[in-house]
Amino acid sequence: MRHLLLFASTLLFAALSHGDHHGHTAHAQEAASLGDILAAQPDEVKARYPYRNPEQTLAFFGIEPGMTVVEALPGGGWYSKILLPALGPEGKLVGANYPANIWPLFGFISAERIAELATWTTDWTAIAEGWRDRHSAQVDAVLFGSIPEEMAGSADAILFIRAMHNLARFEDQGGFLTQAIADAHKVLKPGGIAGIVQHAARDEMSDAWANGSRGYLKPAFVIQSMEAAGFIYESESDINANPKDQHGEEDIVWRLPPSLMGSRDKPEAAAAMRAIGESNRMTLKFRKPAA
């Protein structure tokens, strides 16, 4: 009898183990690798990989399936469309846009467009739903300056990818950068990561030039701003560096591709900008203290 019971138990364990293994296999098959996700992007997206380096960048920040990630200024979704499948069905992507009171400060945004942005959180979420499938992360959206209390300590990572210059540019008119960094600290779990990719000004440029209005910030300024908010500076990478971007006092970042501001109708000038490539960028990693 004891042998029969042992045999039956062995069969039951094997059946359960087989079922569990099958479940893990099915779940693994649901989550595509980041390499496969990147390979599946449209050609116009892949054309920017040499300058945006998404695989290396996300790996440097430690982004993994199942995480909750906040993406600052997701815009048209260049990174969002990579993050959604990369985070997988157990993950979540939260888009975070500028607060409403920053838009009039730009001076070129129409009143009609500003009115439309009043519903950005619901509009962007609806659009992002169209970028995902059943294997993708859930989506949500918030505005800096009005992060719901229930989101405090909920995110594994927040990404500021070319998202800080205008916040810094208008800092004196509304404390926008300070607020966004404070919100980043608030929304992260203890030990959570803040990843920054930002157009990087050369050290010899004046602080006034590198105030964000030309698109560039100094790495030392970004590090100081993050540390002042309680973040720990962990490391930096030259993944997104471009030493060909030797900007001068008259230059703005938007002179370079893809914007080509000032040279779109000047073939030789445009060719010179394309030869430089996209901007020189700092890539910085910070951590919220674990306790």
Name the average pLDDT: 91
Runs in which pLDDT lies below 50 for 5 or more consecutive residues are 1-29
Number of domains: 1
CATH class: Alpha Beta
What profile does the largest beta sheet have? 7 strands, mixed
Cα shape: globular
Assign the CATH architecture: 3-Layer(aba) Sandwich
Q: What does the radius of gyration come to? A: 22 Å
What's the count of strands? 7
Would you identify the CATH H-level superfamily?
Answer: Vaccinia Virus protein VP39
Overall description:
This protein is of the alpha/beta class and 291 residues long. The chain has twelve helices and seven strands. Helix content is 38%, strand content 17%. The protein has a seven-stranded mixed sheet with strand order 3-2-1-4-5-7-6. β1 (68-72), α6 (80-87) and β2 form a beta-alpha-beta unit. The radius of gyration is 22 Å and the shape is globular.
Brief sketch in words of this structure:
The protein is an alpha/beta fold.
Task: Record keyword descriptors for this entry.
globular; 7-stranded mixed β-sheet; alpha/beta; single chain; 291 residues; Rossmann fold; 12 helices; 7 strands
Topology:
Blueprint: H1 2-30, H2 34-39, H3 43-46, H4 49-52, H5 54-61, E1 68-72, H6 80-87, E2 92-97, H7 111-116, H8 120-129, E3 138-143, E4 155-161, H9 165-169, H10 176-187, E5 188-199, H11 219-228, E6 232-237, H12 267-276, E7 281-287
